[in-house]
Amino acid sequence: MVPDELVLDPQLKYWVLLPISVVMVVVGLLRSNVTLLLKSDPKLEEFKKNREKQFLKRATSFKNGSSVLTRDEFLVRQEYFITQLKSSEFFANKNVSSDAPANPLTDPGSADALMEMAKGNMMNYIPQTLIMAWVNYFFAGFVIMKLPFPITDSFKSMLQQGIVTPDLNVRYVSSISWYFVNLMGLKPVYSLIMNDSSAADELVNSQQQNQQLPNLGAPGAPKVDKIFEKEAADIQILSHESIYDGIIDRVLAADL
Q: Which parts of the chain are coiled coil (predicted)?
């Protein structure tokens, strides 16, 4: 039987716990800097795609927030958006066709996008694989700490990986489990060191947050011209009621 209380060597925190934590923080910061160095400069195709998305975002914002405009301002903007949405002025690819299926091989930015994706996957996979191999090789089977607070047995599989002790108190943490805890919980440390919460989010998540817009140009996504036509139709039938209508009478009535 495994006793409920284990006597842990105080040197474990200096020779196992702290080295794993420090190595993961340093490698994470190095990975962030190397990723920035490997990142390619924005190209014309990327600028056109961002311009396309930003114009669609402007059209959506106008459709959802036109009540803050006067009647004349609304009519001017409505005519402008309908005209531009029905044209190909803001298309990233002027030769877009709604009938032919999208072919990513004909997109000049596809190769660059695939290369950027490969770089990101490489910078995420290689460092974490090396750190995990290092922890498994030098610190396999170590019980390195005991949590100072009680937790339920459901955390046992997460905190005691690499050690086969079904009767051991769940508060004890193995070395490989400490690696995974650091992997998921270093965001506050990165935010403190980098003094940038957004950079820390990007480093931890390794992906930017998706915008609430259609992924234009992606395989299976709606065609750009169809999306623009739909927005133009929605704006064309948009009814307008300004919050400034009758504002003088409402203010005077409120004063009374």
A: none
